[in-house]
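can u do me a favor
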């Protein structure tokens, strides 16, 4: 495995873990920094045999991810993602999540219903907690049904900040103020 570490983002470092597949780069995982656990340390723990390396396609993706973390509306290509480790259910959730547009939110329950798993909000939350491609597949755009943001693999503050950069508004208690949910209800 190879890895590309980006040091300068609004949320600390990020690491793209990738390999060559048919002579093309294929991203296996994107690791965001967590409070007290930088992405390069996470890469060392999860992919101990990885080596620092890059190529033009990975460099371009890294720039796009950094710009996305800065709040820009980036249309990410899925061409370089290695989805082979995902189950059919995980793929359905990740594709549904990818369809939630910039500046919009949905709920775990609405995503579950959309993929044919009514009552599967927790299962959707588990898939998104382990999303191997955060930012490219914008798991931060799904919130709890009580309008609180919910969890995020790199912490609550990062999720809230990413949503705010997309124009999502919060009330004084920290709930998302929303009139329309992607995949569902209009309030």
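np, heres the sequence
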């Amino acid at each position: 495995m190879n890895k590309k570490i980006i040091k300068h983002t609004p949320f600390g470092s990020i690491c793209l873990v990738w390999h060559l597949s048919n002579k093309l780069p294929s991203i296996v995982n994107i690791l965001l920094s967590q409070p007290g656990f930088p992405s390069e340390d996470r890469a060392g723990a999860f992919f101990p045999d990885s080596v620092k390396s890059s190529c033009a396609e990975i460099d371009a993706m890294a720039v796009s991810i950094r710009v996305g973390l800065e709040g820009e509306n980036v249309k990410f290509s899925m061409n370089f993602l290695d989805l082979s480790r995902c189950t059919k259910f995980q793929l359905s959730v990740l594709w549904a999540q990818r369809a939630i547009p910039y500046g919009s939110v949905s709920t775990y329950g609405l995503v579950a219903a959309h993929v044919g798993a009514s009552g599967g909000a927790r299962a959707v939350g588990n898939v998104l907690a382990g999303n191997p491609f955060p930012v490219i597949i914008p798991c931060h755009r799904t919130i709890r049904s009580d309008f609180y943001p919910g969890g995020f693999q790199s912490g609550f503050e990062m999720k809230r900040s990413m949503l705010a950069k997309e124009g999502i508004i919060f009330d004084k208690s920290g709930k998302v103020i929303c009139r329309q949910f992607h995949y569902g209800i209009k309030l």
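The mean pLDDT is 93. hope that helps!!
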